[in-house]
Amino acid sequence: xxxxxxxxxxxxxxxxxxxxxxxxxxxxxxxxxxxxxxxxxxxxxxxxxxxxxxxxxxxxxxxxxxxxxxxxxxxxxxxxxxxxxxxxxxxxxxxxxxxxxxxxxxxxxxxxxxxxxxxxxxxxxxxxxxxxxxxxxxxxxxxxxxxxxxxxxxxxxxxxxxxxxxxxxxxxxxxx
Length: 176
Hints:
By secondary structure, this protein is mainly α. The chain is built from 9 helices and no strands. The longest helix is centred in the middle third of the chain and has 20 residues. The chain starts with 8 loop residues before the first helix and ends with a helix. The N terminus is likely disordered.
């Protein structure tokens, strides 16, 4: 029997992040990208956010959640898109996010803050490291950043955080 395996959550997220990253470079007007970059606390109060969310994200992830869960997904995607806009043109599939943080000289304290953060604190910490990565033109797989934000409170939360930490310390140790 020829059965096609259902796409994994990670592969769907990889495709989605890749298509959004490409769209931010070649399709979205620079004003829309700037508008998304200015989103705070994942608050999706932006027409540019809603255009991307309705056109790209909803069809890919299927938002069939309760109103509260849908609002939380919108907040998280607001943070992801703001970080992606900050890192426009720096999406590099296959380059571990933790490795990029180490190469951009993100401090251990800032990494720890990112990995321990929850809720709005995670949004703030993600934006801070994204800004630092952008200032150093640090290329990374933004799928891992998206996983970090989306995994909060999920079964794979600690696995995602530990993978980022391992990649960071493997790189920082080999660079020392």
